[in-house]
Design a protein that fits this description.
This protein has a 5-stranded mixed sheet with strand order 3-2-1-4-5, sandwiched between helices. A hairpin with a 5-residue loop joins strand 2 and strand 3. By secondary structure, the chain is of the alpha/beta class. The protein is about 40% helix and about 15% strand. It has 2 domains: about 30 residues, no CATH class; about 180 residues, Nucleotidyltransferase, domain 5. The longest helix is centred in the C-terminal third of the chain and has 18 residues.
């Protein structure tokens, strides 16, 4: 965090940054057990997609989060994807696990179109009232993966594999800013240039907008 703030022109000392992070209740991101558990007070919706044929764009969108390793820590990455075309409608990066950047990605995607069904896992960010309330207000059906069933959201899981093997592991980002720049370039390439065998060697953008 100190290095990133300095890269943005703020002359700060690491001890001051540490004090401010403690005051805000923030901590460094690193893999921890049960870090994606649902909040006990949040409502979990049933999985609606089992056996459902996906035949049109904006029929189903899905979202997920993953961790992106930096030189001295991690950032969180969230993306919203259209299931039929694999088109990534939006993405966002955060140094925290707060719901705010998930809402940022959702709002950006909803500025493009509206899905019939929105699928996520049962993480506290996606079961929060802020997140589900936005979907409900837009008249969107909410679907959530079963516990321990990664294949319920298989298309986003495949996206994470592509992101990491074709971008992240090759670049070894130093800072959050560097990660955002690299990911921005990657997602343009993924949407507009990368051909998918499952799409008849078309790109996600050509299928989504075609």
């Amino acid at each position: 965090m100190t290095a990133w703030l300095r890269s943005q022109g703020d002359a700060v000392h690491h001890k001051r940054v540490a004090r401010r992070l403690r005051t805000m209740g923030l901590e460094t991101l690193y893999p921890k057990p049960r870090m994606r558990e649902p909040h006990p007070a949040h409502r979990v919706s049933p999985y609606l997609l089992r056996g459902m044929p996906i035949t049109r764009g904006n029929q189903v969108w899905s979202t997920d989060m993953t961790s992106i390793r930096l030189h001295g820590g991690f950032v969180s990455l969230v993306a919203v994807m259209d299931w039929l075309s694999r088109y990534v409608l939006s993405w966002a990066v955060s140094i925290t696990m707060d719901v705010g950047f998930c809402l940022e990605a959702l709002d950006h995607a909803l500025g493009v179109a509206r899905p019939e069904i929105f699928n996520s896992d049962q993480g506290a960010q996606f079961t929060s009232l802020d997140f589900t309330g936005r979907l409900a207000a837009a008249g969107i059906q909410i679907s959530m993966d079963g516990r321990g069933r990664a294949l319920d959201n298989v298309f986003v899981e495949r996206l994470w594999r592509t992101v990491k093997y074709e971008e992240v592991y090759l670049k070894a980002y130093e800072t959050p800013h560097e990660a955002m720049q690299g990911l921005a370039t990657f997602f343009v390439r993924y949407n507009e240039w990368r051909q998918h065998q499952a799409l008849g060697y078309q790109t996600p953008a050509s299928v989504y907008f075609g």
